[in-house]
Amino acid sequence: MQATVQSGVALQDLEDELRKIGYTTGHSPQSKPVAQYGGLVATRSIGQFSTLYGGIEDMVVGLECVFPTGQICRIKNVPRRAGGPDIRHIAIGNEGTLCYITEVTIKIFKYFPENNLFYGYLIKDVATGIKVLREVFVNGYRPSVARVYSEEDARQHFYHFHDGKCVLIFMAEGAKPIADACGQGIEEAVEKFKDGIIKKVDSALIEDWFNHLNWSQKDIDDEVQEMINNDSHSGYTTEISANWETIPKIYDNVINRIRKEFKQADDLVILGGHSSHSYLNGTNMYFVYQYNINCEPEDEFRMYHHPLQTIIVEETLKLGGSMCHHHGIGKYRNQWTKEEHGSAYYMLEKLKETFDPNGVMSFGNIFYQEEGAHFQK
Ligand SMILES: Cc1cc2nc3c(=O)[nH]c(=O)nc-3n(C[C@H](O)[C@H](O)[C@H](O)COP(=O)(O)OP(=O)(O)OC[C@H]3O[C@@H](n4cnc5c(N)ncnc54)[C@H](O)[C@@H]3O)c2cc1C
Question: What is the pTM of this model?
Answer without folding.
Answer: 0.94
